[in-house]
Amino acid sequence: MEISPGECTVRSFLRCSCCAEHLALPAALKSIMSLSIEQIRKFLGRHEQKKLGKPGLRQAAVLMLLYPKDCELYVLLTKRTEDVEHHKGQISFPGGSMDDEDEDLVATALRESEEEVGLPKEIPQILGMLDEYETPSGFAVTPVVAYAGALPSLKHNAMEVAEILEVPLSVFLDVRNERVEKRKRMGHLIDVYFYRFGAHEIWGATAAILRAFLHSVLSKNIGGG
User: Fold this and answer.
1) Domain containing 35 — which CATH number?
2) What does the pLDDT look like over 88-103, one tens digit per residue?
3) Fewest CB within 10 angstroms: 34, 68, 80, 84, which?
4) By three-state DSSP, how is residue 78 classified?
């Protein structure tokens, strides 16, 4: 699947008449509305991924799948079951730990997404990777950013996924959905971000990765042209 440089701008999803009135964008992020998927891909292609370089961490990858729906850009998330080993009941990206048969971490993200939600591996167009993120459970997680022109019919693995969530990206740009708590982690006091989406609350690694994507990747790219 190819995307032309002028196709699929965030402006076309976030500024259309049916949804613009619902947004409360921070001033620093308003210019994101003119950013195209092609620009995101090019920026991530230039982005030098920061590795944690800490011994003892297990390698893992998650898929941040972006796609257009109802005049907006959406991201695919899942609600984990209470039966999984890590992060029980939390909202997360599809993904998991790297297996020996995985060629690389992109392969890990695609395999796990197919296993968890039935997403065919050929659907996502890989845009790039964000910096590694360390979880309290001992993983070095690589977020793999991808795009799909449309989300296919999905069927989740009931052992791992309780619910598939289609979340508008605008949820993470609307300050009314955001709250911050101070928490101690590895001996340091840090800001932990929470985002409200209906009856759900998105926090932890998922919220941190999405926040990094919006602020560190998108907003910096605008200023740099």
Assistant:
1) 3.90.79.10
2) 678 999 999 999 999 9
3) 34
4) strand
